[in-house]
Amino acid sequence: DAIAFKREPLEESYEIGDDIGSGHFAVVRRALHKKSGEAFAAKFIRKRRGGGRKGAKAEDIQREVSILRLLDHENVIRLYDVYETGIEVILILELVTGGELFDYISEKDHLGEEEASAFIAQILRGVKHLHDHNIAHLDLKPENIMLRNRSTQSIKLIDFGLAQRIQGKEDIRALMGTAEFVAPEVVSYETLSLATDMWSVGVITYILLSGASPFLGDNQQETYHNITAINFQFDEEYFSNTSELAKDFIEKLFVKMPKKRATVDDCLNHPWIRPKEPLELIKRQSAVINIDNFKAFMARKRWKQSMRVVSLCNRLSKSILLRKSTDTMGSRNTLDEDKPKLLPSVRDQSHESL
Ligand code: ATP
Fold it and tell me: Which of 16, 18, 20 to mutate to test the pocket of ligand 1 (most atoms within 8 A of CB)?
C-alpha cells in the first residue's frame, strides 16, 4: 500500500542548507531542524512525471522509504521523516559528515589488516541487520559506504535506491548496479538473493586490501565475462603483504552458486574477522594493505570521474551551441530558459558509477 508522506512545507520545520551530494534522481542537502537545532541530510528525490524517463518511479520511492523505515542499526543510515511536494519526495536522513570510507583510507600512509578487517566487520554488521530483515541492498560499492564522522570511524551504509525485500515467493532478477561490483547472478539475469550482497562485500574487501579491482576488464563486456568465469587471482604484485586468512575470506565470497557463497553470519565468524587462535591474530596483525596501490586506485577513480564530467560538459556546451544556432535560424529560445533544465543533469551524471 502506498504510504502517505507529509504534505506541509518542509521549510516550516527545516532550514535547508548547502548541497552535500547528488545521485541519478536525487540531490542531498544539509537540513537544520529549527526546533531542536539538529542537523540532518535532506534527500530530494525527483518524481517521474507521466511517461518521461527523468525522475524516480513512485513505486521505487515507496520501496526505498518502506525499507528504510524497517531498519534501525548503527551501521545503517537512519530515516527520520518523509515529505512530499508535487515534484519531489524528501527523505530526512541522519547526516553523515565523514565522507566515503575509501576516501578516508586513501589519505592514510599506512593501514594494517587489523584496522581493515574492523572496517569490513562494521560493513558486515550493517549488512547483517539488512539480511536479518530479508532485505538485500543490491548496490554495495565504495560510494555507498560512508563514515558518520572522521573521529569515530563509524560506518554507515547509504543509498537504498536499489534495495529489495527478498521474500522467497517473488523472483527478483535485474541487471543493475555497477559492473565491477555485481555478482554472477546479476550478469546472467538469474534470481537475486541476500547472497548477491555478499559477492559485493568480497569485491570491496579485495579492493581495500590491494588497490586492484578483481574483475575489472577493459570494457563492460570483459568485466561481465570475468565475473561469470570467476576469473580473478591474488597477484603477488598487489597481495605480497596480505595474510592467507584475508585471501580465504575473499575466496569464500567469490563463489558462483549463491547458495554455496559465505553468508553474512559465516563472514562475521570467519577467523579474519574474529580470530579464534592467537596465531590467527598475530598473522592479521603483521599484514598490511597495499596503501600505495590503493591510493593509485583512488586517484584513477577520481580522474575517471572528472573526465566524465568534462565530457558531459563538452556535450552540453555543444548542445547549447547547436540550440543557439537553431535559435538564430528560427525559433526563439533564450539561454536562460535552458539553465534550469541543464544544471540538474550535470549533477545527475557527475556521480555516475564508473
Ligand atoms: P545513485 O544515483 O548513486 O543511486 P541516489 O540518487 O540514490 O544515488 P544517494 O546515493 O542516496 O542518492 O545520495 C547521493 C549522494 O549524496 C551520496 O553519494 C552521498 O555523497 C550523499 N549523501 C547521501 N546520503 C547522505 C547522508 N545521509 N548524509 C550525507 N551525505 C549523504
Answer: 20
Of 138, 124, 145, 155, give the one whose Cα is nearest residue 267: 124
Question: ipTM above 0.85?
Answer: yes
Is 139 among the catalytic positions? yes
Does the beta carbon of 64 sit less than 6 angstroms from any atom of ligand 1? no
**Cβ–ligand 1 contact at 28 (below 6 Å):** yes
- What confidence tens digit (pLDDT) does each residue in 21-78 have? 998 899 999 999 999 999 999 999 999 988 788 999 999 999 999 999 999 999 999 9
d(C-alpha 147, C-alpha 25), whole Å: 23
Size (the chain), residues: 354
The set of residues, in sequence order, having a beta carbon less than 8 Å from that of 208 and lying 6+ positions away, is: 102, 105, 116, 119, 120, 289, 294
- For residue 317 the three cell numbers come to 556546451
Atom of ligand 1 nearest to the CA of 159: 11
**DSSP secondary-structure letter at 151?**
T
What string of DSSP letters covers 165-223? E--SSS------S-GGG--HHHHTT----HHHHHHHHHHHHHHHHHS--SS--SSHHHH
